[in-house]
Design brief:
six-stranded antiparallel beta barrel, mainly beta, 0% helix
């Protein structure tokens, strides 16, 4: 994995109530080790895995990624982000693998529903990276040891895989800018 891939320590995981969450259904199957990069800010993203697991409440859906809150940035490719609210069927998104491979895949459907959300905040050094995910057992991230873990079971001190980036975006494109996001 590149230098931008790092382990972040969970500093908080707080239930924040109901909000609009987005699921992206892709036009092909995703491997259990594949996912996308998304987060609350443009300087860091969580690696959220496809719904390839059978859980207590959900069947496996190997074409879907439960992306969390509508306001998230999605890293569409190396230099371009989009808000989840802007993604449309037919848009191509970069799919990442635990092993470092990437591929572009088209979105087949965007599904938005009101769901309970959990805000997870992590730290890499002095950089805060966060995401607002659905409080559901179908949402998985990758831990320090490369294992999958339900986002709703994350606790302070857990370590998860994140992707760090330089801040500064305008209409999804990277720009040089002095910006603070939290």
């Amino acid at each position: 994995m590149e230098e931008k891939w790092q382990q972040a320590e969970v500093v908080s995981a707080d239930l924040i109530g109901e909000g609009s969450r987005i699921c992206l259904d892709f036009v092909d199957r995703l491997a259990p080790t594949e996912g996308i990069l998304l987060g609350n800010t443009g300087h860091g993203y969580f690696f959220v895995l496809a719904e390839n697991r059978i859980t207590d409440t959900y069947p496996a859906r190997p074409f879907r990624i439960n992306c969390g809150a509508i306001h998230h940035y999605l890293l569409k490719d190396e230099d371009k982000t989009a808000y989840l609210a802007e993604i449309k069927p037919g848009d191509r998104v970069t799919i990442y693998s635990i092993t470092g491979e990437t591929r572009q895949l088209a979105v087949g459907r965007v599904k938005m529903e009101k769901r309970p959300l959990i805000r997870i905040v992590t730290k890499v050094g002095d950089k805060e990276i966060s995401a607002t995910l659905q409080e559901a057992d179908s949402v998985h991230v990758v831990t320090e040891g490369g294992e999958e873990k339900q986002a709703l079971s994350l606790e302070k001190g857990d370590r998860i895989l994140v992707f760090t980036d330089d801040p500064g975006r305008h209409l999804g494109d990277k720009i040089e800018e002095d910006i603070t996001e939290i």
